[in-house]
């Protein structure tokens, strides 16, 4: 490449990069004169009645990288949250299935108890001491009431 053509190009790139860096560090002064006119300057004005402003560059070469990293972090956090939600949903479905199975067994037992209590006049049962006894009519009615409550509780309508 010819030096005659590359030198101005390199000089232009150097000026562009240096003004970008310099522009970020320049202080700008704002003040109001005696005629209430607002002035802005890079040179510090005389007197104490001024405020110093700083420039903020709107272009940051790392901003895309920072945005990409933050979006990756957000995406991974959302993925973890979704994964936890899926696991929780699966556990809830397993618990619901177990509960349905238990409810079905309890419903069946309550229905069989009512059928047995209504089918026989004398019902023998073994108490906690191991003795066989006959249910009285009051005890039989209590067992029927309890079984009906169990049917209301465990059987789907």
The global form is rod-shaped
End-to-end distance, in Å? Answer: 90 Å
* Number of extended strands: 5
What letter string, H or E per element, gives the SSE order? HEEEHEEH
Number of helices: 3
What's the rounded overall pLDDT mean?
Answer: 79
State the secondary-structure class: alpha+beta
Strand count, sense and barrel status of the largest sheet are: 3 strands, antiparallel
Low-confidence stretches at least 5 residues in length (pLDDT < 50)? Answer: none
Write the layout of secondary structure elements.
Elements: H1 3-25, E1 27-32, E2 38-41, E3 50-54, H2 63-119, E4 124-126, E5 132-134, H3 137-154
Helix pairs in contact: 2-3
Which short descriptors sum up this protein?
single chain, 157 residues, alpha+beta, two-stranded antiparallel ribbon, 3 helices, 13% strand, rod-shaped
Summarize the structure.
The protein is of the alpha+beta class.
